Amino acid sequence: MTETISHSPDKSIDDVSFDQLRQLVGLVDYDESRDPFPVKSMDAVVFVVGNATQTALFYQVAFGMEQIAYSGPETGNRDHKSYVLKSGSARFVITGGVRPDSALLDHHRAHGDGVTDLALEVTDVDKCIEWARKQGATVLDEPHDVSDEHGTVRIAAIAAYGQTRHTLIDRSRYTGVYLPGYQPRKGAYRKPEGAPKRVFQAVDHCVGNVELGKMDYWVEFYNRVMGFVNMAEFIGDDIATDYSALMSKVVANGNHRVKFPLNEPAVAARKSQIDEYLEFYGGPGVQHIALATNDILATVDHMRAAGIEFLETPDSYYDDPELRARIGNVRVPIEELKRRKILVDRDEDGYLLQIFTKPTGDRPTVFFEMIERHGSLGFGKGNFKALFEAIEREQDRRGNL
Ligand code: TYF
Ligand code: FE
């Protein structure tokens, strides 16, 4: 029997090629024919916010994204406004309620600005739903076609942790800009001269925070319902009690294009950053979205100039001889990283550079990570101590002890 080693049916995602993605987000080969729930990629990260009009501008200015589509009262959608933004292969949809009785306003009242949907592009919606249902998933939206003059998409949705859902989309028969109901529409914002072409190229991973004792439940959910595999990296009891106050495991689809780390609070000396999230988000939800860049120095310079605040890393991190020895040579002098507070981690496969924003909304909940991979398939385990100490300093500033 011949086995097909499947990469991805589409070899180029906009102008981010498959080979670029392999390096950007760390892909592996796998046998798609044996996958009960084959996932192509992230389709979109869907945010519900208090003011979609202003938030869409924020992602254009600070994250260099490009507005490509819109749905709202002017296009016949009286309930809410929805802006579609792109950067390389990444798509964000920013949504906010317009009518006072919009369900989105209830979502916002409960959770503040947050992520409602980690939408996935799949090749066969019905096959995925049939499998997921058999494995006990809650189907929120039964498979159905939605059409306009640009073709047809097939859509369904299953429930994940908290109020988060996974919409499944087959867009292989659709040529429109996003989905039926959306019109192509650029924003009025114009990038300044000299701005990087892109601040990031892809979504690398999306992290969920779940309640104490529920991490393994959700890992098992992704294994059983969506055929996701466990990745090697995890934060266990040992690390948790010493300093991180959280436990974490990572699941990924077959080729690792879609990676979902899952955190739960750990009982530690101080209030866990995960407990703080759960309290302010009002339950489980998406904690951070990691965005892959091929030039994290330019990324950070652009974002800082636009007013984005990153977690501080003390100079001692960079001056630590043990870190220097472990890191070895990276593509830029350590001084360049130190100046920008970019963290470095190395494992047996290579290294990665990463940095974390402070929470970007009003509540201490959702934040972003920018990551530049050079072979490493990890998540920065070697940085957890420095990272979690920085997060705790921020918790203290918020009066959360
Ligand atoms: O995604 C990850 O697992 C890494 C590490 O609050 C991490 O980015 C985990 C928890 C957290 C911040 C970063
Ligand atoms: Fe991360």
From TrEMBL:
Its cofactor is Fe cation. Binds 1 Fe cation per subunit. SUPFAM superfamilies: Glyoxalase/Bleomycin resistance protein/Dihydroxybiphenyl dioxygenase. Residues 41-171, 202-358 form the VOC domain. CDD domains: HPPD_C_like (cd07250), HPPD_N_like (cd08342). GO terms for molecular function: 4-hydroxyphenylpyruvate dioxygenase activity; metal ion binding. Its EC number is 1.13.11.27. It comes from the Bacteria. Fe cation binds at residues 205, 288, 369. The keyword Repeat applies. InterPro entries: 4OHPhenylPyrv_dOase, 4OHPhenylPyrv_dOase_C, 4OHPhenylPyrv_dOase_N, Glyas_Bleomycin-R_OHBP_Dase, Glyas_Fos-R_dOase_dom, VOC_core. GO terms for biological process: L-tyrosine catabolic process. Keywords: Dioxygenase, Iron, Metal-binding, Oxidoreductase, Pyruvate, Repeat. Belongs to the 4HPPD family. This is 4-hydroxyphenylpyruvate dioxygenase.
